[in-house]
Structures
1.
Amino acid sequence: MERFQDTANLLTVIKTCRRQGRSVIEFFERAIKAMVNSNMQAPSLIP
């Protein structure tokens, strides 16, 4: 059941980025970089 929720969360992020006209790849790239580097701010889906 947890994997289903993870998939649903990823699809929500993708759909939100597309609706906002943002690059999905760029969003995930920034999110991963922020996880590795604590000095970077994680991206937000809230406009």
Note: Residues 2-36 form one domain.
2.
Amino acid sequence: MFEIILVLVLAYLLGSIPSGLIIGKVFYKTDIREHGSGNLGGTNTFRTLGVKAGLAVTLADILKGTLAASLPVLFQIDINPLLAGGFAVIGHTYPVFAGFRGGKAVATSGGVLLFCAPLMFVTVLIVFFLSLYITKYVSLSSMLAGICGVIYALIDWDIPLLIAVSLLTSFVIYRHRANIKRIANKTEPKIKWL
């Protein structure tokens, strides 16, 4: 039991590493929480600091989820990697190292899928970029990618994966509730780099 708790705590702490805050402050002398949406995720980093910083933060946030999901395997603990990945997502969204103000769970959730269901990860990534190319909305594309993941797990009938992806997608949609209102009001910012 101690080992399980240790792995879940480590997963949460991994998720809590505030990539956007670190990259912003170290390389750009900027706290991205004071700009744009105030969010620590990749999208706000793209808008505030540019493409290079945005890509670095997004990649780091994906890798947090991947590494956290791999912890049960690395420690040879008999728990589903999806559970450890879920704790990283909570850490990313409510990071102990950044006053519990984090990102919106998209990239880190993707990182969990990268480890647990690589083919699903590739599928939702394709859906994300197709939607982004058509709509120019990162928020909408993130939610559609999550919904695609739920459909994928439903067709594959992988019950643990279906439960995990459904929870992650619901959480992503909940975190984007302000974006949904802005999309409806046609005030949501569109990307200009794609």
Note: The mean pLDDT is 94.
